[in-house]
Design brief:
Elements lengths: L9 H13 L19 H38 L24 H12 L4 E2 H12 L7 H16 L5 E6 L2 E6 L4
Antiparallel strand pairs: 1-3, 2-3
Helix pairs in contact: 3-4, 4-5
């Protein structure tokens, strides 16, 4: 909201006309026009607080992990002083899959396989997991490939609960039969 000062000067009017001229320009994606209230937006303050809080939590986690690593290093030196001199590369952490929460993919796989009358091939299993999750079965090869890859990774971690079989030369999956 624009407020005119009580005593308008020629200089003020001159600069105000410059500002108003900006709004008459044609849209140019290389030079977008951003309007901001002089007092700042409550949304920006809220976003700043949110990012600041996230940064604070990450710094706390980092300090905790550094402390845990220092304690582990000290413990390892007690048992074998040469243990840390060996090359130990950091193991990269798996990223979170955007379409499912932790453990959700495996639970969906169990549900689908439990209801299946016969073992399912990986592609069919991924298709049914997508349907159970409500992901449209559009012809998006990249999404299907990502979900199929996630399903395969979950299957490899579900040893002892889901077994791999072969049906007509095709690798298929079923819930382990309890003897």
């Amino acid at each position: 909201m624009w407020c005119l000062p009580p005593k308008q000067s020629a200089e003020f009017v001159f600069h105000m006309e410059d500002v108003l001229e900006v709004y008459r320009r044609r849209y140019d994606p290389k030079r977008p026009v951003v309007c901001v209230e002089p007092s700042g937006s409550p949304d920006m303050r809220e976003k700043h607080s949110e990012l600041s809080g996230a940064l604070s939590r990450l710094e706390q986690q980092l300090a905790q992990h550094r402390g845990s690593l220092a304690h582990l290093d000290a413990t390892m030196r007690l048992f074998d002083p040469d243990m840390l001199s060996q090359d130990t590369d950091p193991v990269p952490q798996r990223g979170q899959v955007s379409w499912s929460g932790p453990g959700e993919c495996r639970r969906l796989i169990y549900d689908v396989l439990r209801d299946a009358p016969q073992p399912l091939a990986t592609r069919e299993l991924a298709k049914r997991v997508m349907a159970a999750k409500g992901i449209p079965a559009v012809d998006d090869h990249r999404t299907r490939a990502l979900i199929q890859k996630t399903v395969l990774a979950s299957l490899s971690r579900a040893k002892g609960m889901i077994e791999q079989t072969e049906v007509d030369g095709v690798v298929s999956w079923q819930v382990c039969q309890v003897a």
